[in-house]
Amino acid sequence: MRTVLYARVSTAEQTLAHQRAQAEAAGYVLDEVLSDHGVSGVNTRLKDRPEGRRLFDILREGDTLLVRWIDRLGRNYQDVTDSIREFIRRGVIVKTLINGGVTFDGATKDPMQMAVRDALIGFLAATAQAQAEATKEAQRAGIDHAKANSREDAYRGRKPSFTPAQVVAVRDMLSTGTASIVEIAKASGLSRGTVYRIKEDPAGTDALLAKWY
């Protein structure tokens, strides 16, 4: 019986080391670590990612699949629910690290407990997709606003101290609700003040990015 950590690292500012350190700090002994870098959790199914596909090849009954949170598996409701339920049918235990940790497995045969488990899977998967869609909508609104209120030759002002990739990384960490501003600043390479600005003024952040990128 093995414990396999899977990490999806969607931007350069996110780190595999951070996710692995969280697992080890929680007391897990990892037999293998798999990670996919620079892939979208919305548009790319778990089975369509190189290392995600390996999970379905190597995990056996009694093994544990460990993820930082459900959104590391993906941000598409159908994909996440299908993947977790397939692992459960195979006898694989799926565990998360943050928010006290959640365990999904096929141990119970009680129909009521199974219904609660499946409902929780659906809720967390839906939340992951909703967060991704909200972020995308905020970015789109900011870009549209900037385009509507600026000319091609307009003065763009001072270049922002953050990149698009850093903004995505900060929002990804903020969406979990578990990382502190200090931790996010350290992981993203930004100041605490900049992280607060990205958090409190999403439209302004996107508008500024639209002028420069």
From TrEMBL:
Coiled coil regions in record: none
Residues annotated as domain Resolvase/invertase-type recombinase catalytic: 2-150
Family from the record: Belongs to the site-specific recombinase resolvase family.
Entry-linked SUPFAM superfamilies: Homeodomain-like, Resolvase-like
This protein's name: Recombinase
SMART domains, sorted: Resolvase (SM00857)
GO molecular function terms attached to this record: DNA binding; DNA strand exchange activity
Keyword Oxidoreductase listed: no
InterPro entries, sorted: Homeodomain-like_sf, Recombinase_CS, Resolv_N, Resolvase-like_N_sf, Resolvase_HTH_dom, SSR_resolvase
Keywords: DNA integration, DNA recombination, DNA-binding
Record bears the keyword Ubl conjugation: no
Active site (catalytic residues): S10 (o-(5'-phospho-dna)-serine intermediate)
One example of a Gene Ontology biological process annotation: DNA integration
